[in-house]
Amino acid sequence: MSRTDAILKRLSELHPKLIDLSLDRMLPLLDALGKPQAKLPPVIHVAGTNGKGSTIAYLRAFLEAAGKTVHVYNSPHLVRFNERIRLAGKLVDTRRLNATLERVEAVNAGNAITFFEVTTVAAFVLFAETPADYLLLETGMGGTYDTTNVVEHPLGTIITPVDLDHQAFLGNTIAEIAVSKAGIFKRGAKAVIGVQKEEGRVVLDKAARRLGITPVWQGEDFHGSAQDGRLVFQDEDGLLDLPPPALFGIHQYDNATLAIAAARHFGLPIDADALARGLRNVVWPARMTPIKGKLRDLLDPASELWLDGSHNAHGSAALAAAMRTMNESRPAPLVLIMGMMNTRSPQDFLAHFKGLAEQVITLTIPGEANAHRADYIAAEARKAGFAARPSRSVRAALKTASVLPGARVVICGSLYLAGDVLAKNGTPPD
């Protein structure tokens, strides 16, 4: 076990629950550390159900193309914890990460605090002590009581599309979940909101207006779409003809459009050339990413291997749409290799692939106690009408898929599975 893993294991034992939404435990700890959350560069806070990470990836690419230095906070990580904290453009150095985690651990002095809370406090310390021009801050879950929601005066807030997810913590309806997401709105901070279902839109609009905020809305105040292989963006300031996003999938046009609108509405120093360079250079691992290397080599030469971290029904709809788009240019039999956490429904995830996926091969995510068993996912897939079978490992699953020549194989269902795949392939992020 590495020193980082040993520290993280100790921190994970400070609270019996993995998730316990509250700010009461971390605020005293932040105070004891000198309130680092009040010493950050301008913050753009991002909440929503899907698309948060991609939207942040675009904003980072735009800002860096414009010559700015950017901190980023994302979760979860795929392979190494360091991926969660990017300091002025680079993943946090392991030695510095360890020292900061141990410093925060010592100040906490054994008090009850969740893993996400204490590690987020450490991230705020690192962000406050490292110069940068901006901080792009992603919520972990929800908004109102999310651990990141301690920044009193963000430069701006973004709400990506809100849908059903984490119902056990956030509510059973889109309206209830939207109430939580709206908790990141702050008086005096501008807001940009992605495409919403009507019940979520009503909640977000009321919450913003209570704080004197007039949000700008995707599909109403600004628009973006794919036209002749380009991204065409339009808002009240005019029209931009831009290159297509480097991230694959028609849904990435929506994510890129949201990021462009935020850059313009928040007054970020990004011109059209920087937007174009950012769209060409953006990187966000395990989001419809083609996989090369030793795992790909287990398939026949004519097959494709893709990795996607989508894990709920909203994400699987985007993934299925991307598969249909790919079939238009090269028809191929689709094989899904999927593993899921037990907070997700395999049948809900697979509903969008009816008539599209020829075979489903299921896995138990290695090292995850709260993962669905492969045989359970396979049984649920068969109930939904799919040809499905469990497999003991990703290598075994790929060998099974290899008997279908020229297949399009997609590994999906969980970011935790995506991380395991990247580690086994020897291609971790950065």
TrEMBL record:
The protein's role, per its UniProt record:
Functions in two distinct reactions of the de novo folate biosynthetic pathway. Catalyzes the addition of a glutamate residue to dihydropteroate (7,8-dihydropteroate or H2Pte) to form dihydrofolate (7,8-dihydrofolate monoglutamate or H2Pte-Glu). Also catalyzes successive additions of L-glutamate to tetrahydrofolate or 10-formyltetrahydrofolate or 5,10-methylenetetrahydrofolate, leading to folylpolyglutamate derivatives.
Per the UniProt record, the source organism is Devosia epidermidihirudinis
Q: Which GO terms describe its molecular function?
A: ATP binding; dihydrofolate synthase activity; metal ion binding; tetrahydrofolylpolyglutamate synthase activity
Protein name stated in the entry: Dihydrofolate synthase/folylpolyglutamate synthase
What keywords would UniProt list here?
ATP-binding, Folate biosynthesis, Ligase, Magnesium, Metal-binding, Nucleotide-binding
PROSITE patterns reported for this sequence: FOLYLPOLYGLU_SYNT_2
Which Pfam family is one of those matched by this entry? Mur_ligase_C
One of the GO biological process terms: folic acid biosynthetic process
